[in-house]
Amino acid sequence: MTEKRTIMEQPVISDRHNELQKAQPVPYRHGGDVWGAIEVAGVSVTEILDLSANINYLGLSHQVKKAIEESIDQVVHYPDPQCRRLIDALADHFAVSPDSICAGNGAVDLLDHWLHAVKARRVLIPEPAFGQYERAVAAQGGEAVRLQLEEKGHFRLDVEAWRQALQKENCDAAILCTPHNPAGWVWTAEERQAVLTHLTSAPVRLLVDESFLDFLPDGRLLSCCAEAAKSDQVAVLYSLTKFFAIPGLRLGALIAHREIINAIVRRRDPWVVNHLAQVAGIAALADRDYHRKTWEGLPQERDYLFQRLRDLPGLSPLPSAANFLLLRIEESGLSSTEWTKRLRRRGILVRNCNTFLSLGERYLRLAVRDRAATNRLIDAMRAVLAEEGML
Predict the structure, then answer these.
(1) Maximum alpha-carbon separation in the chain
(2) Rounded CA separation 129/138 (Å)
(3) Residue 144: phi, psi to the nearest 5?
(4) Exposed e or buried b for every residue in 165-183, given b needs 16+ CB within 10 A?
(5) Does domain 15-60+289-387 have CATH number 3.90.1150.10?
(6) Phi, psi angles (nearest 5°) of residue 117
(7) Side by side, which strands form the sheet with 143-148?
(8) Which intervals hold domain Aminotransferase class I/classII large (predicted)?
(9) Of residues 275, 372, 127, the one with CA closest to residue 380
(10) What is the DSSP-derived secondary structure letter of residue 355?
């Protein structure tokens, strides 16, 4: 039987961690907490294999690292409050005007600002989805309306059901993610056009989260950046932390109509993006060799991970266009919480999907890494299955 959990619950990984959680008003419910994991596994950060955060398996670009090292002495100055060079680089990347872009301290920072700027009140959000969408809506005083995606269709968006839900639920805003987190599908050109066409006859604001779109070599063809720069109905949320492997620097961008951008810039901290993050973003966008190597290598590593997982009893990975896989583990006889605990003891972090409301204890999400990392994961999972007598 699937274990039911409240939205605020999270597995306890140590006594000290539990004490910290009680002291915090909002528990941490995302991947990438290597700092908490080292206490449980008893190893250093470098020994942790983190598959819980969807970061480019190539790691930090050499050009980005060099740019940061060469700029370290400049932190004695305030960062550029207008992010001039970074905005210009982003404008080239998206092929839009600089006045339709603002940079932020990660995509989540800009999600909050967009919701406030458009005064969203009833926001349609597919389920499962990135949990920060719903929490950001609530923080702005709005109401999140969930559209349940069908498990039998691998949680893919049904555009017609989406359109009907917008009207039936009287929503004034919506959030979509492509490639979708956590399922990994990407919308087609036809689905994209159907969504945008609907907006021409509906008074709805749409935010499209394209945080993982750069992982597709032709991803820009499926982007809504051009529409976002022209229309106040559409906006695009973009993260540089995933594709360029710089989550510790916190860097994102919002592409929207210039009036929305101006409204956001007027109300926020003028130094929201630190100097090293700006420098890293400029260097990352310019590193075309890094882009090419990702596009060439990712499909092979993703397919290898998919096949190795599928060969294990009780495990069923879902097809993905992104740099992660959603893995159904229900037939293994172990819950997602139990899988997470056992792998963590072996120094491996995976994303427990019980924080996605509709997934319960039946799914894990795994980031794609290189061949050696995948083999380490598979060896650990085989050991867990052997303990359960399934191998």
Answers:
(1) 61
(2) 15
(3) -85, 130
(4) bbeeeebbbbbbbbbbbbb
(5) yes
(6) -65, -40
(7) 101-104, 252-255, 234-239, 205-209, 173-177, 122-127, 143-148
(8) 47-380
(9) 372
(10) G
The residue behind tokens 């905005």 is: 87
Domain segments of the chain: what residues? 15-60+289-387, 62-286
What is the rounded distance in angstroms from the CA atom of residue 95 to the CA atom of residue 387? 53
Residues 324, 368: contact at Cβ < 8 Å? yes
Assign domain 62-286 to a CATH class.
alpha beta
Give the Cα separation of 385 and 309 in Å (integer).
12
DSSP bridge partners of 351: 365
- CA-based Rg of the chain, rounded to a whole angstrom? 21
Q: Which of 248, 229, 268, 259 is nearest to 81 (CA)?
A: 268
Long-range contacts (CB closer than 8 Å, 24 or more residues apart) made by 129-132: 129/175, 129/177, 129/180, 129/181, 129/356, 130/177, 130/181, 130/209, 131/29, 131/30, 131/355, 131/356, 132/30, 132/108
Beta strands in the chain (DSSP E): 49-50, 101-104, 122-127, 143-148, 173-177, 205-209, 234-239, 252-255, 316-317, 324-328, 348-349, 351-352, 363-367
**Listed residue (174, 179, 155) closest to 164, CA to CA:** 174
Token pair 């409050």: residue: 81
Instruction: Look up residue 149 and give its DSSP letter.
Output: P
d(CA 248, CA 370) in angstroms, rounded, equals: 21
